[in-house]
Design brief:
By secondary structure, this protein is α+β, with helices and mostly antiparallel strands. It is built from four helices and six strands. It has two domains: 2-25 and 106-182, Topoisomerase I, Chain A, domain 4, CATH 1.10.132.20; 34-101, Gyrase A, domain 2.
């Protein structure tokens, strides 16, 4: 019974870590990375679609992302979506191929991106702490009658260990991203 509740807590916290990893991958480090375009949504075929469903994204070199649009009628829509995503990117179009040169980051911009990475980390720490609280509350509610205080204490300390491990992972991921951003 305890193991089932612990597995649920681990699963919720793992989703927070996965979400953080996805968010951090969208932050520019001054090097081309196709994940930078993940937040881009293209107005295509009457709905908002992820850019990956309208084009093939690749890295030509360390400072250039190539976006090969599949439907020639969507080239302008994809270009507009990249501009409107406020990523600080300026696409240039050549037929169905859109090239995006990744500008070198100024010191000021690097500091902004580090703050953003730390904000993402703090948001996920809050999420993990909420998962800890929810798991403990759920365990207590389900086991009000037949559970000893020792069982509740053992469960609580185990959930705290899992929480601490995940908080450390978050700190490590944010620190790695900060190092990448600040590297010249």
């Amino acid at each position: 019974m305890i193991d089932q509740h612990l597995d649920q807590a681990r699963e919720k916290m793992a989703k927070a870590i996965e979400s953080l990893t996805n968010d951090l991958s969208t932050i520019s480090t001054g090097r081309a990375n196709p994940d930078m375009l993940n937040p881009v949504r293209v107005d295509a075929y009457g709905s908002q679609m992820p850019i990956t469903q309208t084009a093939n994204i690749s890295v030509s070199d360390s400072t250039t992302i190539s976006v090969q649009v599949w439907d020639s009628g969507l080239v302008k829509a994809v270009e507009k979506a990249i501009i409107n995503a406020n990523l600080g990117l300026n696409p240039s179009t050549d037929g169905q191929l859109i090239r995006i040169n990744i500008p070198k980051l100024s010191e000021e911009r690097r500091v902004e991106f580090v703050k953003l990475a730390k904000k993402y980390g703090e948001d996920r720490k809050i999420s993990i702490r909420n998962s800890r609280r929810d798991s403990i509350d759920h365990f207590k509610r389900e086991n009000e009658e037949g559970t000893s205080k020792d069982d509740v204490h053992a469960f609580t300390s185990e959930v705290q260990k899992i929480t601490d491990e995940n908080i450390e992972k978050i700190d490590r991921l944010v620190s790695q991203k900060e190092t990448e951003i600040m590297a010249v």
